[in-house]
Amino acid sequence: MATLPTVVINTRQVWDNRENSKLSEVVYKQRKMSAFSDCYLELSDDPVRFEPINQLTNVFFDDSNKDVFTVRSGGVMGVVVKGPKENGKVLNFRMEDQGTVLSIKLSLDHKVLAVQRNNTSIEFMNVNKEHLVVEYSISCKRNASILGFVWSDINEFAVITDHGVELYTVIPDKKALKQLKSTSITVQWFVWCPRNNIAILASSHGSQLQPVAIKQGSISKLPKVETEPRRMALKGDVTLSTLYGTAAVLILRHQSGPHTAEVHVHLLNVSGQSPVKAHVLKLGLSGRFAINVVDDLILVHHQASSSSQIFDIALAEESDGSVRYHTTVAPMKSLKPTSITLPGLVEPQSHACELYSPNWVVFQPNIVIDAKLGCLWHIKLRLSELCQQIKDMSVCTQLALNRTDGKPVLLTLLSDAIKADKPDMNKLQESFNHINLVYRDWVDREVQNQSACPASASKNQSSPRVLIDQNAMFEEIFQTMSADADLLKIERVLVCYLTSLAEYGVPVQFNLNKLLVSTLARQNKFNALQQLLQYGVITDSKPLAVLLLSLGNMHSSSTQMALDMLARLKANDEIQEVLLSEHQILSALKLAKDEANPRKFLTAAKSSGDPTLFHSVLYYFRNHPKFASVLQSDERLHTFINDYNEMFSGSCA
Fold this sequence. Notes:
The chain has 18 helices and 32 strands. The protein is α+β, with helices and mostly antiparallel strands. One of its GO terms (cellular component) is late endosome membrane.
């Protein structure tokens, strides 16, 4: 496949340069059967447009600022710099013709321009609006050859040569550079990750990969990447990106013979230890590939089949104890077709863009550039369409929980699964467990933050990407079900969800308990209700006890269930009120002991119309050391003594 030698400097081409194997019959059929309507990846609708590459114009890309440079005639006829669409910045200037431009980049604050025209020196120019003023330069050490350069900070600049790394601070006002640090190491090529300020320096034909961190005026060598002994890697085979907040080295490995390609993922997360291979992505294909990362999902594009695979290293997969082996989470699909508008003879014409074009160049994390067409796109994930391609509900749940916009998709997914004629309760239980594991961890952190000092709490604030709490489940799932006539389905799903909450030690909110109790009562399933209370699936609470009391006219056992619940809550005052309302006055009096209110109990005993009961209650207070004097001193109680005297012709005095 032809290579455009002047497309983008200091980055790799999208398709590696190995000979492409013939497209197998199976893959060919997959390509023919692929439907664009269910594509789960798409290019941004409004790409950054720039002047296409031609005989006079070269195109460069700066992966730190995400700027596209179009350089016409070495800069004499103008340089146009376009940044990402969201900032809308466009910079125009001219440069003197001092030779072919090999690389060009602006500082992170866009105030200094660095230009490389040969392999021994780099020129600097201060940017004043759209004018370049003052030129100063640096030259590499003797016998060294510049491989490239990066802006590691606003005024910090690193030069990577075949002899190592040199770090400078740029002082625009003084038109000078000052060397801060340097390190010596043999380098044949390098890959840079601006997000983590980490470079991979390759030697021994790519069999030795040395990570270095270039931060805050220092160069720190990290432990070497442990690769297969004497296994070489080309620059186009190595991708440096970030997965779930951790720097990762992705190495494309082409297997010999009939074996298919793999991607080996090394994580740079353990201090002091070599980043060993932690994950292997089994591609099941051979040929030419390119890699992007979108929302922590690894995208592997395959040119021959014009399709992409998608991998998630967070999913639990087959493991040999040290390495986890992953297959694509969904069937391979092509990117969604896209088009751009081009000038026409009479009016603009719509032009369908060639997907997986040999002119494509990719950059991390999710950028695709077609320099011949003059377009820069961002690859976007269509999560809803992706989940539709995955049959396993549990996998969909885990996938959505780790995506930035996963909450509405996951709620819709759950709602659709529940509305099915025969929902798979086992799979729903698994999904609820994944959701509540995240929920429980969040609850624990919130409790810790409330008990910690403000400074510590601010450090611990790390909200999950998708948090589906009980309120969300109640409002988005169960309230929409309450209008459903299928009470049995509501019951089963509620029990499934509440069981999951109980398994992770999360107290169930009253609104969910109330819905389950009401659903069971409407089906007259009081025995089942009692069992759920005994096993702790339904959480005890005073409002729930009141609800159970209100169901006493439907089933006598609900009152006893309410009393048992109040007893577990040690709510003696409430139990007394229930017993009094049930005319179990002596039981209430026995429970109250020294805290009894004589007037309340005497009133209840008299209202019962049972003289023997009234006698027993008054006799209890008359002979109790604490209440005997109260009967004499409280005028409000004299009425009860008089009633007793009339009833039994005796005296309490």
